[in-house]
Amino acid sequence: MTDPRRDHFSLFDLPPRFLIDEAALDDAYRRVQSQVHPDRFAAAGPAEKRAAMQWAARANEAYRTLRSPTARAAYLCESNGQAIDAESNTTMPAGFLMQQMTWREELDAARGGDAAAAQALAQEVDAHRQDVLARVAAALDEHQDYAAAAAAVRELHFIDRFRDELAAWLERDRSAQET
To answer: What's the domain range around 134?
Structure first.
């Protein structure tokens, strides 16, 4: 087994970058899990079983973090001394605050029964998310500007929550129309 104190990237033998090869991550995860899965240690002693469970949990946590662009960016920032504090540091650029208000208003209007408007809003939010992800990639991989990346990650946290809320509403609306 590899050293559990290693960071998420080295656990999977990947370079510590925002832009990663997701197929390589998936392959590395399966490889690590095949080595540490608790089922492989069914006949082992209690200490080995416990270590295998800890390793499997560590691999799962690392995989979940690296698989999510927002979590991966936050992990890279925090690993380089830049706290995200998305829940307590809600400072956002004025333009993004205005964008949030506009999206909220559009979602409220769509809740009046305009699923097409909600779909259009979802596409707009997804496009904005892609722009923010590009900023994150440049800040982390090209410039090593962790403060700029952290600010963009805080935007991503809001966008991701808003996308989840919008997707849940669209699903409820779709279910209601089917009944």
So the answer is: 94-178
In the chain, DSSP finds a helix count (H) and a strand count (E) of 7, 0
SS3 at position 53:
helix
- pLDDT value, residue 167: 93
- Looking at the structure of the chain, the number of domains it has is 2
Residues 116, 173: Cα–Cα separation, whole Å: 11
From 21, 58, 69, select the one nearest 36 (Cα to Cα). Answer: 58
CATH number for position 41: 1.10.287.110
Enclosing H/E stretch for 112: none
Whether 3 has a pLDDT exceeding 60, the answer reads no
pLDDT digits (tens, 9 = 90+) for 59-113: 999 999 999 999 999 999 999 999 998 777 778 889 999 999 999 999 999 988 8
Neighbours of 23 (CB within 10 A): 8
CATH code for the domain of 143: 1.20.1280.20
- Least confident range from 4-8, 19-23, 43-47, 112-116: namely 4-8
